Amino acid sequence: MTSVTETASAGGAPTVTGTPTENPAELDRTDPATEVARAAQAYRNWGRWGEDDRIGTLNFIDDAKRADAAKLVRTGRSSSLSQPFDMNGPQLGWRRRTNPVHTMLDTGTDAQLANQGFPHGLGGADDVIAMPLQCSTQWDGLGHIFDHGYAWNGRRSGEVVTSDGDLITGIEHTAAEIVSRGVLLDLGRHLRDSGELEDGYAITTADLESCIRAQGATAAVGRGDIVLVRTGRYARAQRDGWNGYAGGPSAGLSFTTAGWLHRSEIAAIATDTWGFEVRPNEFDDAFQPLHQVVIPNMGLTIGEMWDLESLADACAADGIYDFLLVAPPLPITGAVGSPVNPIAIR
């Protein structure tokens, strides 16, 4: 397998100089390739946790971090942060992503007709579900996105993900990792009286930092935290219909927040939007350029399509924005993403 040192400057990505900007107005909208390469080089974590690493920034969560996070449970109130998994979901078929199809294998009708073959009047129900793993509330695994044919930690993408699945960074390796201090940054409430950011709004580093200051000490972000960013996009979808929620325009993180994501040493980040970053993207011709920097280069785990509404209401009511977050993926061997039912316990 190709080593980190061999691939640090390999591949088709251009070698560039200069420091990435944190001001969206300074991005060269006509040259996403250079901007992506500059950020990838500046914020690359290849080799940071050894050449055999499988989990990237989730390494920032250790046992002491989880023990401290458990102390944040004050009332025991829990909130599910998952959208429903049903046919009324957001998917429109892009990249063959469909909403979940739930089928009953045995029903109460079968039991009532006594045709299930069980003795002494026993009856039962069974069901099956078919769905893409990233059709609703989910984690992006580290094998989900590549940069010029390279995956997380400098491995060739074809050596990582094959027709047999993700052979190295499969989501199953994170099954016991994603328990930590969660922090809600409610950018929707912070920036707009309506509580909802408009489509196309690019959340900047300055926005993130001002939100932290406004929310107070419990919103401080540090090593090993899982940051949840609420834009209000899901609230609008619930009120007005999906209307392009999956793949359409949305507020989201600016490409220029890559530096903040790197230096804050967070373990993971999740949003209430389909794509985590602002859409349309901040270049004339690009597709999810922040993904290209943070997943294969930084090793950051990303969550999308989370329902942050009940949590945001609770945080706004008492002014406390941190909590114990328990959000393990399903340990699906070789998967590059996973459905999740995240639980915030306050």
From TrEMBL:
One of its GO terms (molecular function) is arylformamidase activity. It comes from the Bacteria. Pfam families: Cyclase (PF04199). Residues 7-21 have a biased composition (Low complexity). InterPro entries: KFase/CYL, KFase_sf. It comes from Pseudoclavibacter terrae. Residues 1-33 are annotated as: Disordered. This is Cyclase family protein. GO terms for biological process: L-tryptophan catabolic process to kynurenine. The lineage of its organism: Bacteria, Bacillati, Actinomycetota, Actinomycetes, Micrococcales.
